[in-house]
Amino acid sequence: MNVYEFSTDEQAAIVKQFGGEFFNTMQKTLESCTKKWCLSVDSLIPYFSVNCIFACHSEQYGETILKIGRKYDEAATEAGMLKEYNGQKFCRLYAADTKNGALLLEKLSPGKNLYYETDAEQRIIAFTRLYNKLHLPSRGTANYPTYREWIERFIKLADSRDDIKEHGSKALVLYDELVHTYSKTMLLHGDLHHNNILSDGDGYRIIDPKGVIGDPVFDCSRFIMEEFDDNLMPCKHAEIKSFTRKLGKAIGIPAEVLLKCLYVETVIWMGEDLFFFNWLDDCMIVNVLQAETLIKFT
User: Fold this and answer.
1) I need a surface site. Which of 34, 72, 77, 133 has the fewest CB within 10 A?
2) At what angle do helices 282-296 and 166-178 cross, to 10 degrees?
3) Is 286 exposed, middle or buried (0-12, 13-18, 19+ CB in 10 A)?
4) CATH number for the domain that contains residue 97
5) Would residue 75 count as lying in a domain?
């Protein structure tokens, strides 16, 4: 065990992303986790999205990853989902303190993300191998939200935003249309994209599930978004359609259905940023408009 000493630059980066109050709370959680789980912290991984991530050595498990975040509900659903899958296509969960947003996870090695597959068709093949037979019915290990509830959250949060609120009702209508055909209630990852698909020496496995209930058709949209760097500008539309057709053929879902799901996902993504960060980047609004255009002209 060791007490991790943050550099000035590390502390500044964390405070800039999450605030000083989070930094102080996170430090206490880090100290508590290293003691009770017998960890030595090797380094802070310089990737700040919604968690602080540490590379650690565990006396019991060897090389591990410790995540500490402020989304305690998502820590609970992630922990629940990883328990349900128990290493099947996912990294393993070793320990959890969800009240403090902390998860101790298996470190996948070599751990290269799907971007290291330089050919798009190879990325589709890797995704398809994971996606096929991935989704299971939940055994109720956590209080998972539903995909529909994610849309409803956006509608509530965007009620005072005349520039975007119409997309909530449009997304809900489209979702209800899709679930007439795609009506399974399975446990979805909720954020299944390139950076959450890592090599483990034998192929790829998945990290960072959000945990949400819905039909597996809705677990493809983030993969499409990430393939185009979260940028759906018109200059990319022909390429997006071509990629979506290839993906749809591989997983057995029509491209037009995947594009409808993509629009719904862009709306949900706006809701997530409004909920957790209380702000919205203009590029996200542009993506919603462009995703809507892709549906109209498909």
Assistant:
1) 133
2) 40
3) middle
4) 3.30.200.20
5) yes
Total number of domains in the chain: 2
The structure's pTM equals 0.94
In which domain, by residue range, is 274 found?
A: 114-296
Q: What is the mean predicted confidence (pLDDT) over 103-126? A: 96
How far apart, in whole angstroms, are the C-alpha atoms of residue 244 and residue 166?
26
What tens digit of pLDDT does each residue of 212-245 get? 999 999 999 999 999 999 999 999 999 999 999 9
- Distance from C-alpha of 175 to C-alpha of 275, rounded to nearest angstrom: 20
